[in-house]
């Protein structure tokens, strides 16, 4: 274990100084044992947090907790209690991390395995400890021990210490996210995903658990997409996840793009495999040998197959849930066509389905266009994409890609048919085809959309209270919470309120609204409000004694509702009013996101303006020559001119092309020969979107 | 490559003598080159097949084929043409295999890498060659070269030579399976799957491609199952496919069952991983650490999650499509409960959903029951299963399993809640809970169903003409084929027939029948009939001039219709008649399979009868003591008494317990203390099903 920890640490220390920093958080390491626990308990806490054995014991439900003696320190951590490092751990242990450390925005000072203090960021620290713990807890050491078991998603109330930290929200509700989106976006994103019940961190770095709340969104996307591709005759199938190295290496340009990230299986049980076998990073080379076999005549075209699967790309950049993960879910479509026309029609059709998934399901505006030579798919002919924009970071993000592979792969894999036109002509001329005459390599496409969609949606719509889900994909669109039941309420009235809440939900379910009555016992209405708010449910209906009397549902919109305005809706208008309200919520969300994207688009005609505009979080439309060297040059020059750390594991500060938008007219006019490229001053061809990106 | 081939060969030679056998097929190895092919062409053919370069060239569309010179033999195969082995191949090559060899039921004699002839079976030979070929073809050398390109699924016509072989069907239609189910079941199964367009063999041994025709069936099963589990509140999610070795090894009994088959990732790109990472063989240890984290109170119970994914079990037994594959698709449900009652209710509910999938969707009768101690899930409390039966081989087959894991895993992973009953009692007594009082380990279940379902369905319903699909899962339920259009037919009549066929299909689609008009050009109606027959479409409608005149659809049922009877259905009754006919087809299929299962069930009270009954392809219900040692003893004694090869890679000839059926009454009465176990003569507890199995 030691060796792995050191490796991981040395990676994460690249950007952090090894000397003690002024603006950093000091820590202490403690070790306990308990008769109730089969393993020792190691605690890493803020140096200022109260950490009595009895307080900690109450919080982790091990009331007989006592400090470890020297022999335990020495056997477990190979050190005395004064110079022990939590990273020296070499056997099973329950690790308890101070929650304030896991949320810290300043570097954390922890004793390293060499006995010296070293700096580490909160995410890395959490991940390392979690992945090495037999059992792992984050605890709020400052909070009083809870009297009753906390519901599983309820984080502890923020402490005064936490509120002092930058990015924390003063007076935030008990169960809100607790970190401001506009101040500490990366931590906000993590917290929203965790507290919104979308995912959990996992034992293997770069992999995440998709909980039902996010997986439901993926299923909604699947359902829509399957319907749209079925219309053009695409069928689903499943190819194995393993690829032999021989097949993987067939297309050289293509594999060059993926080779550094390919995961290799070399052992089964105790036996070494005779030949290592790769896990697919994408399936072009997996599938195309079979296309060569299956496509025997032009009558077999178009062949259109799609699969929903997971692929593995073992990236060494910092992982980020949904956006960059080592295993991710996606669909990959692979099709073969008689000619370029048929292939390119499909590229456009699929691209538009992708646009509709972003815009119509996720309320996320995207710009469709074609990728530059630099950014196109390795081994392909051209790539079209939809490009999104994250206002908080000012970065563009590729939404999905639809590639025309041309005939490159069909030549490599010998996927041919006899050209029916040539054959017809020969027949008309009354002659046989000559050897090889009319042999035609098919045209191919591939296109993919991944769970990244979900990450983009969260980044764009989420707010300081948590997730905000667009109605089309929310697995609960309306939650009904019975309210106002107190000790004074008569049992009859209480029952009438609960029944009324249930009846509202039942009526909505009947007309196809995904509604739910939250009748959980033991939680206050306020706690429920916050719970559903954090999880982003589009409409909350409060139903209390007054509402029962007035026969109304008090509706609170989650999205674009800064003052938490409540709208009463007569129960008689429920079936009409709620679907309308859901539509309005979608419009509000989409228009807000669209305005924000539009406001951040700037046509730039002067190179000096580029970095300034990037720093203002803009995406740039520039007249561009479309040459590879020019794109590289723009990226390099803007990277050098930008502030901030240069870290291979972080997204680049330089600008790269996002796409050349289909809709050119909105950016003005390129006069051929007159309008010059902003990068290199050669004649510009079209407007291209440039920006920092994920 | 050499080393791998030798390894593979030495495995498959275990059962085959190395000396030349009397009843075996001799072969010849040929080598060609062509200007049209980037790689040489190696041909392995029956020694008696005609193999002129020009004939072969025409068949593989390389008309300039010429024999290789000595230098090519030597560079490619490291030998002269007289002692070269096709297994010595060490670089890219197009391999062409004589189809009669790939279908041979006798051992095939091939030159081994040592220059000596060695025996090999057809499947292994095909797999080895296929997995080492850059391009692979099976060709019928005896058939005349085709004039036009063959449609992708059409195998060549059987030759006289082939018909002579055992198992081949005399006078079989051009596109039928060509191998009799009751004579050569393994080859029949492979051919039905290939020609029925269900799957294709793959480059990595033990992995198969699920083509849309089979994947659609899987999707139908998914849809049904998702609906049924949603009713009890199960939600779908996705856990990563990777498991750290630490987590995998947490539950010892459990991992012992899987360890020998776990695939390990040890490299990413060019880098060795610090620690090998396993690919999940199942997800208990993947998921349960998070259950421990997520379940904080009894209010979080039951927690019911399901995932649709693929798992990897690197088995070294002979792979068999759908039944035993190294990667397979399945669903795995994992749930946690407050007590045994809640858990066991769910085990039964899920078991019944599995039964319904087999019986109601696939028309496959199964017997639900509980597994013996020997056969239960490693680390679980008890396992229930549905057990099917393959009449042709007389083997039982486990259909799906629903496990109650008891508290074993929850103790291992520390998944606990405070018992609400104990807490309530303490409150009633006006006292606080004592330390650890009322701590309750949750009860857990896991349950899974895999694509094996599809294999069982094929084995049971398929016939000598190919697949037979049960209407509930057939992605095409009705195919309409326009007929009787000849050179004499007027263009108007031809159009009316085609339009009529299309109209029939449209009307059926409108009422929810999955219908399709086969209007493909360039294929005769006869070819289409056979094509859809091979693919198992439940109803074929022939629509010709007579039918147009009489305004009728001529319906031909695929299943249980030995004489290919045709039933005319007035077009006016289409919407009423076709759904009824589909229902009837389901009934016919299910009842036929059920009768065959019932006829093969025999209550056996005498040990000596067991092996005889097994040899008569029976499944036995025996009064049984239910003890582990007795089951092992029965297996051993029946194995020793059975004829046939003993081969680790083949299914055992011994009898093991399939399940202890829920419905005991059908087998008679066990008198406690009086009825004795057939195996060991101790008192019997219940009837158990014993049989040979997959």
UniProtKB/TrEMBL annotation, chains A, B:
<feature type="compositionally biased region" description="Basic and acidic residues">
    <location>
        <begin position="636"/>
        <end position="650"/>
    </location>
</feature>
<dbReference type="Pfam" id="PF04073">
    <property type="entry name" value="tRNA_edit"/>
</dbReference>
<feature type="region of interest" description="Disordered">
    <location>
        <begin position="636"/>
        <end position="658"/>
    </location>
</feature>
<dbReference type="InterPro" id="IPR033721">
    <property type="entry name" value="ProRS_core_arch_euk"/>
</dbReference>
<feature type="domain" description="Aminoacyl-transfer RNA synthetases class-II family profile">
    <location>
        <begin position="216"/>
        <end position="470"/>
    </location>
</feature>
<dbReference type="GO" id="GO:0002161">
    <property type="term" value="F:aminoacyl-tRNA deacylase activity"/>
</dbReference>
<dbReference type="InterPro" id="IPR002314">
    <property type="entry name" value="aa-tRNA-synt_IIb"/>
</dbReference>
<comment type="similarity">
    <text>Belongs to the class-II aminoacyl-tRNA synthetase family.</text>
</comment>
<dbReference type="InterPro" id="IPR017449">
    <property type="entry name" value="Pro-tRNA_synth_II"/>
</dbReference>
<keyword id="KW-0436">Ligase</keyword>
<dbReference type="InterPro" id="IPR004499">
    <property type="entry name" value="Pro-tRNA-ligase_IIa_arc-type"/>
</dbReference>
<dbReference type="GO" id="GO:0005737">
    <property type="term" value="C:cytoplasm"/>
</dbReference>
<dbReference type="GO" id="GO:0005524">
    <property type="term" value="F:ATP binding"/>
</dbReference>
<protein>
    <recommendedName>
        <fullName>proline--tRNA ligase</fullName>
        <ecNumber>6.1.1.15</ecNumber>
    </recommendedName>
</protein>
<keyword id="KW-0547">Nucleotide-binding</keyword>
<dbReference type="Pfam" id="PF09180">
    <property type="entry name" value="ProRS-C_1"/>
</dbReference>
<keyword id="KW-0648">Protein biosynthesis</keyword>
<dbReference type="Pfam" id="PF00587">
    <property type="entry name" value="tRNA-synt_2b"/>
</dbReference>
<dbReference type="GO" id="GO:0004827">
    <property type="term" value="F:proline-tRNA ligase activity"/>
</dbReference>
<dbReference type="GO" id="GO:0017101">
    <property type="term" value="C:aminoacyl-tRNA synthetase multienzyme complex"/>
</dbReference>
<dbReference type="InterPro" id="IPR006195">
    <property type="entry name" value="aa-tRNA-synth_II"/>
</dbReference>
<dbReference type="InterPro" id="IPR045864">
    <property type="entry name" value="aa-tRNA-synth_II/BPL/LPL"/>
</dbReference>
<dbReference type="Pfam" id="PF03129">
    <property type="entry name" value="HGTP_anticodon"/>
</dbReference>
<keyword id="KW-0030">Aminoacyl-tRNA synthetase</keyword>
<dbReference type="InterPro" id="IPR036754">
    <property type="entry name" value="YbaK/aa-tRNA-synt-asso_dom_sf"/>
</dbReference>
<dbReference type="InterPro" id="IPR036621">
    <property type="entry name" value="Anticodon-bd_dom_sf"/>
</dbReference>
<dbReference type="InterPro" id="IPR002316">
    <property type="entry name" value="Pro-tRNA-ligase_IIa"/>
</dbReference>
<dbReference type="GO" id="GO:0006433">
    <property type="term" value="P:prolyl-tRNA aminoacylation"/>
</dbReference>
<dbReference type="InterPro" id="IPR016061">
    <property type="entry name" value="Pro-tRNA_ligase_II_C"/>
</dbReference>
<keyword id="KW-0067">ATP-binding</keyword>
<dbReference type="InterPro" id="IPR004154">
    <property type="entry name" value="Anticodon-bd"/>
</dbReference>
<dbReference type="InterPro" id="IPR007214">
    <property type="entry name" value="YbaK/aa-tRNA-synth-assoc-dom"/>
</dbReference>
């Amino acid at each position: 274990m030691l060796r792995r920890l050191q490796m991981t640490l040395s990676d994460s220390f690249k950007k952090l100084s090894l000397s003690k920093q002024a603006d950093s958080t000091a820590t202490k390491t403690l070790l306990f044992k308990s008769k109730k626990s089969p393993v020792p308990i190691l605690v890493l806490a803020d140096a200022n947090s109260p950490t009595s054995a009895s307080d900690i014991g109450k919080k982790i439900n091990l009331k007989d907790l006592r400090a470890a003696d020297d022999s335990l320190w020495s056997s477990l951590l190979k050190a005395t209690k004064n110079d022990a490092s939590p990273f020296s751990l070499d056997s099973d242990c329950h690790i308890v991390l101070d929650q304030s450390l896991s949320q810290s925005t300043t570097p954390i000072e922890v004793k390293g395995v060499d006995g010296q203090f070293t700096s580490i960021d909160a995410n890395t620290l959490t991940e390392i400890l979690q992945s090495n713990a037999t059992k792992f807890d984050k605890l709020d050491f400052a909070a009083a021990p809870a009297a009753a078991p906390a519901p599983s998603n309820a984080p502890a109330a923020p402490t005064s210490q936490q509120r002092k930290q930058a990015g924390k929200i003063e007076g935030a509700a008990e169960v809100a996210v607790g970190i401001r989106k506009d101040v500490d976006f990366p931590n906000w994103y993590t917290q929203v995903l965790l507290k919104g019940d979308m995912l959990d961190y996992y034992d293997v770095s770069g992999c995440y658990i998709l909980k039902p709340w996010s997986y439901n969104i993926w299923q909604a996307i699947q359902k829509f997409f399957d319907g749209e591709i079925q219309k053009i005759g695409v069928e689903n199938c499943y190819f194995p996840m393993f690829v032999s190295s021989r097949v993987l290496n067939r297309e050289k340009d293509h594999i060059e793009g993926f080779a550094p990230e390919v995961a290799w299986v070399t052992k089964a049980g105790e036996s070494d495999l005779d030949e290592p076998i790769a896990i697919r990073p994408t399936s072009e080379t997996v599938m195309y040998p079979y296309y060569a076999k299956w496509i025997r005549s032009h009558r077999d075209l178009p062949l259109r197959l799609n699969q929903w699967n997971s692929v593995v790309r073992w990236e060494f950049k910092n992982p980020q849930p949904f956006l960059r993960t080592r295993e991710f879910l996606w669909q990959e479509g692979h099709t073969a066509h008689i000619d370029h026309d048929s292939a390119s029609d499909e590229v456009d059709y699929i691209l538009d389905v992708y646009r509709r998934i972003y815009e119509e399901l996720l309320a996320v505006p995207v710009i469709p266009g074609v990728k530059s030579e630099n950014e196109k798919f390795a081994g392909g002919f051209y790539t079209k994409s939809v490009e999104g924009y994250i206002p908080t970071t000012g970065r563009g993000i590729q939404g999905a890609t639809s590639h025309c592979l041309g005939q490159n792969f069909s030549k490599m894999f010998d996927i041919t048919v006899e050209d029916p036109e040539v054959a017809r002509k020969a027949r008309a001329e009354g002659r046989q085809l000559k050897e090889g005459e009319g042999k035609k390599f098919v045209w191919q496409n591939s296109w993919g959309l991944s769970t990244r969609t979900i990450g983009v949606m969260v980044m764009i719509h989420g707010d300081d209270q948590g997730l905000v889900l667009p109605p089309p994909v929310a697995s609960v669109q309306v939650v009904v919470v019975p309210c106002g039941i107190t000790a004074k309420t008569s049992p009859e009235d209480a029952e009438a309120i609960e029944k009324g809440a249930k009846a509202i939900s039942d009526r909505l379910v009947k007309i196809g609204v995904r509604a739910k009555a939250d009748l959980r016992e033991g939680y206050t209405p306020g706690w429920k409000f916050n719970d559903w708010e954090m999880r982003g449910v589009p409409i909350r209906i409060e139903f209390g004694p007054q509402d029962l009397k007035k026969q109304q549902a008090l509706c609170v919109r989650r999205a674009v509702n800064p003052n938490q305005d409540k709208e009463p809706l007569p129960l008689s208008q429920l079936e009409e009013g709620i679907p309308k309200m859901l539509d309005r919520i979608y419009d509000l969300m989409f228009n807000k996101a669209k305005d924000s994207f539009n406001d951040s688009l700037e046509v730039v005609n002067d190179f000096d303006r580029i970095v300034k505009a990037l720093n203002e979080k803009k995406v740039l439309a520039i007249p561009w020559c479309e040459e590879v060297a020019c794109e590289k040059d723009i990226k390099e020059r803007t990277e050098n001119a930008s502030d901030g750390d240069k870290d291979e594991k972080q997204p680049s500060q330089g600008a790269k092309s996002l796409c050349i938008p289909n809709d050119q007219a909105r950016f003005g006019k390129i006069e051929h020969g007159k309008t010059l490229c902003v990068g290199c001053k050669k004649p510009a061809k079209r407007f291209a979107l440039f920006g920092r990106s994920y």
